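Q: what sequence does this backbone want?
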């Protein structure tokens, strides 16, 4: 519980610093492509969290989006997986709809998850086995839904890819409606709260889903890759998350019929961080 309270505190503090500086000039750089952005706020937030964690728990290890933990290849000990700003495009263009996301694992087992909707001061948090919360309100167990009566979220980008469109287009067509939030961590939080019934995307890194994974599973969400396999917290993964019924429907009726193609994609693209 000590680690949990410490994490909660430093995430809140980081969020306050971001809110206080939201109108300051932002330095923007690109990473893998012109739409893959990183700002000075991303880097400063991760560095601040890294220093706070290490000064309090020097033996803990940290895997962060902006460069910390690139040598981590196992889950021994206490591992923090940190995204200082999940939804950087939203942060740059909207100054909202982004989150600080942290998942903590002990010897590979889930311990605690945090997704902090910074501008709305909403902290989604969970300790494995003890339920999930939004600030001081416990989240309710998820209710089962069918695709045809559900809101789902996904990245519209996947509908533009010829192979993946064969999978994604029928899902979007059959769902009640589709949303795109631009922050994977908040997509997980929305499923956990019941705002959406499912979230599917073709590629997320560990820092994108580590915090949300723990929160969502605490309210009964099923979280796997698109082959129905457990997520690897040290590698990129495809994602399929939803309440139990819609997850089974999506997996069996929409994804597994394309198992061979998906296996090839996973083999080619999802090895390494």
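A:
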């Amino acid at each position: 519980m000590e680690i949990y309270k410490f994490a909660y505190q430093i995430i809140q503090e980081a969020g306050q610093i971001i809110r206080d500086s939201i109108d300051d000039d932002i330095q923007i750089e690109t990473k893998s492509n012109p739409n893959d952005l990183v700002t000075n706020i991303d880097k400063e937030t991760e560095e601040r969290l890294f220093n706070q964690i290490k000064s309090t728990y020097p033996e803990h290890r940290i895997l962060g989006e902006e460069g910390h933990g690139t040598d981590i290849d196992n889950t021994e000990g206490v591992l923090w997986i940190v995204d200082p700003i999940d939804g950087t495009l939203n942060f740059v263009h909207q100054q909202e709809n982004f989150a600080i996301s942290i998942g903590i694992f002990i010897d590979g087992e889930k311990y605690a998850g945090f997704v902090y909707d910074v501008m709305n001061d909403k902290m989604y948090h969970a300790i494995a086995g003890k339920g999930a919360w939004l600030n001081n309100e416990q989240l309710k167990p998820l209710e089962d839904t069918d695709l045809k009566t559900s809101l789902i979220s996904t990245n519209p980008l996947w509908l533009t890819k010829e192979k993946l469109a064969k999978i994604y287009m029928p899902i979007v067509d059959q769902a009640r409606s589709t949303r795109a939030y631009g922050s994977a961590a908040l997509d997980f939080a929305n499923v956990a709260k019941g705002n959406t019934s499912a979230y599917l995307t073709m590629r997320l890194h560990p820092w994108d889903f580590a915090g949300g994974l723990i929160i969502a599973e605490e309210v009964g969400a099923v979280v796997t890759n698109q082959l129905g396999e457990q997520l690897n917290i040290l590698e990129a993964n495809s994602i399929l998350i939803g309440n139990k019924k819609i997850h089974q429907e999506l997996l069996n009726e929409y994804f597994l019929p394309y198992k061979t193609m998906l296996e090839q994609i996973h083999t080619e693209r999802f090895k390494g961080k």
